[in-house]
């Protein structure tokens, strides 16, 4: 049986100014656990606005975001922040690592904020994540001592720190060279194959083609949905992890 990790019901985000502007206009979406979903669309079509709603960084004007069965629209800002900290991991086009902290310290931050692990456990997890992303030698470096691809992998490690159900990424390879793009996208693919849910906004059609599903957004609405990832002969692995409550 498939498990739904993320669902939206008639999701609307409107901003009121001199004229009201609808950024997200009635999106209904169900994303399965372990699915790799790509969001594409022209500039200004509402991709980032939708992603911020999916990751609880922003609250909808109407509609609902349901994360692992939990409706979130009526949560207080504190409750929303708690769900966000544990269920959602973010990666942005610009890494947003704290410049005065080392790679290791940046990855420790979300675990410290959550406060559920001992110092030793947090250090072990951060080291394990960074090592698995090929950064075992870079853990003591600050962001300005790392390459763009390395920084983005630290940002990925930070996003994964609290074992979120859902990883949302807004053009995570937008600033990277081809080799680093390939590496970061490969990591996102592996994350989905290990049972976490990945939602990525990208302008890169070749990368989007490798997702399990693509939704194309125009004027805040789903204009087209296409299924099936270009796995280049890979054998799909059934996700095994379950939503944690
Ligand atoms: N806070 C805001 N107030 C008013 N308009 C906004 C606000 N945030 C975004 N917009 C507008 O909403 C529309 C959608 O913006 P959004 O950032 O979601 O687009 P996008 O698809 O991510 O574009 P890009 O590909 O350039 O990143 C744009 O027209 C943008 O100018
Ligand atoms: Mg955007």
Level-1 CATH class name:
Alpha Beta
Radius of gyration from CA coordinates: 18 Å
Low-pLDDT regions: 233-241
CATH architecture: 3-Layer(aba) Sandwich
Q: CATH homologous superfamily name? A: P-loop containing nucleotide triphosphate hydrolases
Helix and strand element order:
EEEHEEHEHHHEHEHEE
Largest sheet: 6 strands, mixed
How many extended strands? 10
* Shape annotation: globular
Write down the oligomeric state: single chain
SS element count, helices: 7
Helical content class:
25-40%
| End-to-end Cα distance | 18 Å
SSE-based structural type: alpha/beta
List the ions, cofactors and other small molecules found in this model: adenosine-5'-triphosphate, magnesium ion
What is the mean predicted local confidence, pLDDT? 91
Number of domains: 1
What fold name stands as the CATH topology? Rossmann fold
Describe the structure.
A hairpin with a 2-residue loop joins strand 4 (62-67) and strand 5. By secondary structure, the protein is α/β, with parallel strands linked by helices. It has helices at residues 47-54, 77-87, 103-114, 119-132, 148-160, 178-193, 205-208; strands spanning 4-15, 21-32, 36-40, 62-67, 70-71, 88-91, 166-170, 197-201, 213-218, 221-227. The protein has one domain (36-59, 76-231): Rossmann fold (3-Layer(aba) Sandwich). It has seven helices and ten strands. The strands form two sheets. The chain has a six-stranded mixed beta sheet with strand order 6-7-8-3-9-10, sandwiched between helices. Strands 2-1-4-5 form a four-stranded antiparallel beta sheet, covered by helices on one side. The chain is globular, with a radius of gyration of 18 Å. Residues 233-241 have low confidence and may be disordered. Magnesium ion binds at residues 47-48, 170.
């Amino acid at each position: 049986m498939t498990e739904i990790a993320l669902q939206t019901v008639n999701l609307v985000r409107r901003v009121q100014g001199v004229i009201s502007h609808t950024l997200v206009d009635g999106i209904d979406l169900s994303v399965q656990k372990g699915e790799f979903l790509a969001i594409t669309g022209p500039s200004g079509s509402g991709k980032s606005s939708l992603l911020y709603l999916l990751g609880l960084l922003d609250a909808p004007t109407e509609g609902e975001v349901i994360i692992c069965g939990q409706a979130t629209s009526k949560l207080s800002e504190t409750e929303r922040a708690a769900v966000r900290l544990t269920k959602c991991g973010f990666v942005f086009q610009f890494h947003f690592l704290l410049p005065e902290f080392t790679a290791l310290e940046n990855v420790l931050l979300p675990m410290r904020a959550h406060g559920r692990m001992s110092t030793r456990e947090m250090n072990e997890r951060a080291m394990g994540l960074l090592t698995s992303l090929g950064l075992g030698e870079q853990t003591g470096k600050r962001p300005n001592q790392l390459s763009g691809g390395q920084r983005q992998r630290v940002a990925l490690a930070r996003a994964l720190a609290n074992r979120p159900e859902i990883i949302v990424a807004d053009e995570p390879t937008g600033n990277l060279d081809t080799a680093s793009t390939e590496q970061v996208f490969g990591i996102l693919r592996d994350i989905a194959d290990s049972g976490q849910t990945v939602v990525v906004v990208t302008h890169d059609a070749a990368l989007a083609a490798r997702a399990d599903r693509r939704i194309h957004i125009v004027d805040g609405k789903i204009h087209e949905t296409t299924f099936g990832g270009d796995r280049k002969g890979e054998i799909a692995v059934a996700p095994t992890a379950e939503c944690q409550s």
